[in-house]
Amino acid sequence: MHKFETPEPIQVCVLGATGSIGSNTLDVLARHPDRYRVFALTGASRVAELFDLCQLWRPRFAVMPDVQLAAQLRKQIQAQGIPTEVLHGEQALCDVAAHADVDVVMAAIVGAAGLAPCLAAAKAGKRLLLANKEAIVVGGQLFMDAVKDGGATLLPIDSEHSAIFQCLPEDRAAWSSRIDHIVLTASGGPFRERDPQTFAQISPDEACAHPNWVMGRKISVDSATMMNKALEVIEAKWLFGLQPTQVKVVIHPQSIIHSMVVCKDRSVLAQLGTPDMRVPIAYGLAWPERIESGADLLDFTSMKALTFNAPDAARYPGLALAWQTLTGPAGSTCVLNAANEIAVEAFLNRAIRFDQIHAVNAQTLSDCLPEAGCTGTVAGLLDLDARARSAARQVVRGCLQ
């Protein structure tokens, strides 16, 4: 008789394990214990939460951003006899993402801080599940070149880009001959019916109360301003090799249709499902297979209507910045992302009003012009990111006067 060997478990590195995407990823992994193992977990500042995850998953590595937080985590882990090595810093993030024993990297670090480990995973040829849209918004061509040169498999995790990906053939060479344009759906956030004249009174807690999705505070604010959709437009251009004019946006409050592909024959392909991030996460983990995600089934009989509206420019002025930066000087998308991170942070800290976020972004784009050739290297991009953040902070200070 032949003895059939059990396949080795797939080793997963979760960058940003304590955030909402990280938590949902671990939920999906827990449903398939024979298929996946957690190799490494990283966190930003939540030591207690990462310690709990290390107790549960017992990864080989855990990574914190700085030495003090790492020391706190290491002390707790050693006291419990957990066989997890604690590392710290950006290089450690890159090292675990590119580790020879890692098969899959979930990139769920929020903001431009995720660029370096994403590039490391891409260069190492990993299956890279991209939930960190900022990495591609900042990295642009440099990031896509790293994916190609490293032989990585890049799979989008944002629900909208996953939906587009699911509607396209596996043969990427066929994409350009089939796509007329794509339509990214947007819920419209919590203020789609609120009078824009009252936006100055919006509090951080109100902006973070998304009607459909459970997300972190930064992305919740981005959803309220529709800056998340602006970043997704930029991401879609790079992911699917599109011209900026081939990316459209429509408000779909029910968040049932996650996005659509309009084909050259005018057929429209759409991916539908309940608003649950475990669906695109499970798809990315198992592609091209399908595995249980834990999400509820979509009940068509309970749906009263699916509605669609054009975005209101007065309500969502930041959305237009996507196309402005895509047609502007190379590096403009990096400046926009940096400015928005500073503006959202200032709003969450109550340093500026909600209606001033767009003003910070627009003024920073005007004040911080990318230098020719700055997007060709990581160092150039990081320098541009730093200059844009400095310019944005100056604009924020002006808002306080």
Number of helices: 16
Based on the structure, what is the oligomeric state of the protein chains?
single chain
What low-confidence regions span 5 or more consecutive residues with pLDDT below 50? Answer: none
Rg? 21 Å
Question: Would you give an account of this structure?
Answer:
Helix 14 packs across helix 16 (378-400). Helices cover 43% and strands 14% of the residues. With 401 residues, it is an alpha/beta fold. Helix 6 links the parallel strand 6 and strand 7 (153-156). The protein contains 16 helices and eleven strands. The strands form two sheets. It has a seven-stranded parallel β-sheet, sandwiched between helices. It has a four-stranded mixed β-sheet with strand order 9-8-10-11. The model has no long low-confidence stretch (mean pLDDT 93). The protein has helices at residues 20-30, 47-57, 67-79, 90-97, 115-123, 133-150, 159-166, 175-178, 204-207, 217-225, 227-239, 278-286, 321-326, 332-348, 357-367, 378-400, and strands spanning 10-15, 36-42, 61-64, 85-88, 104-107, 127-130, 153-156, 179-186, 247-251, 257-263, 268-272.
Short description:
This protein is an alpha/beta fold and 401 residues long. It is built from 16 helices and eleven strands.
What is the strand and helix layout of this fold?
Elements: E1 10-15, H1 20-30, E2 36-42, H2 47-57, E3 61-64, H3 67-79, E4 85-88, H4 90-97, E5 104-107, H5 115-123, E6 127-130, H6 133-150, E7 153-156, H7 159-166, H8 175-178, E8 179-186, H9 204-207, H10 217-225, H11 227-239, E9 247-251, E10 257-263, E11 268-272, H12 278-286, H13 321-326, H14 332-348, H15 357-367, H16 378-400
Parallel strand pairs: 1-2, 1-5, 2-3, 3-4, 5-6, 6-7, 8-9
Antiparallel strand pairs: 8-10, 10-11
Helix pairs in contact: 2-3, 4-5, 5-6, 6-11, 6-14, 10-14, 14-15, 14-16, 15-16
